[in-house]
Amino acid sequence: MSVTPLARRLSAVLTAGVLAASLVACGGPTTDLDAAGVVKALTQKGLPVTLTVTYTADNDPNKLLGRPNGYASKASFTDKRVDISKVIGKEGDVELGGSIEVFEDAGQAEQRADYIQEIGKNMPMLGEYDYVAGPVLVRVSKELTPDQAAGFEAALGEIVK
Question: Which helix (H) or strand (E) holds 154?
């Protein structure tokens, strides 16, 4: 008995569905920390950061906190290695250190990072380092060197497992 093309397609779709469900069931990296908790954890990992703003739906400059497809929490931090005399920015701006955005799932965090990177490609003055682990996006000032910024990626990998 030969298998029809429709049966082959149906089998492929079902197999893909089972694989996707298995991956979701196994889960990827995750955390119970909110954005301010991630900043605290970065400090505990030795990064020279200080929490400056914990955002609410009322003061979130992006109007994404708690909204559809937005983040569940957001916080900003300063980094002592950023020379603030050379940066134009106000409290909470990524340029002064960075920010943390925690989403409901990893896909949303990746989407947001891609969006921000696309903006940076089109307007280099808005560029930044972005690191994602599970549902957490860490946005880091471009004022840091690549080696300094890489410390955030390493610490994030230890925080979000």
Answer: helix 146-159
CA atoms within 13 A on the CB side of 94: 21
CB 92 within 8 A of CB 99: yes
Exposure class string for 66-103: b at 16+ Cβ within 10 A, else e: eeeebbbbbbbbbbebbeeeeeeeeebbbbbbbbbbbb
- Give, as one character, the DSSP assignment of residue 144: S
Taking each helix axis as running N to C, give the angle between helix 35-44 and helix 146-159, from 0 to 180 degrees, rounded to the nearest 10: 110
For the residues of 64-130, what is the DSSP string, one character each? Answer: -TTSTTS-SEEEEEEETTS-GGG----TT-GGGEEEEEE-SSHHHHHHHHHHHHHHHHHSGGG--EE
pLDDT tens track for 82-124 = 999 999 889 999 999 999 999 999 999 999 999 999 999 999 9
Q: Report the C-alpha gap between 68 and 94 in whole angstroms.
A: 23
Give me the percent of the chain exceeding a pLDDT of 70. Answer: 83
DSSP string, 30-66: --S--HHHHHHHHHHTT--EEEEEE--TTT-TTS-TT
- Please give the DSSP secondary-structure letter assigned to residue 5: H
pLDDT at 4: 54
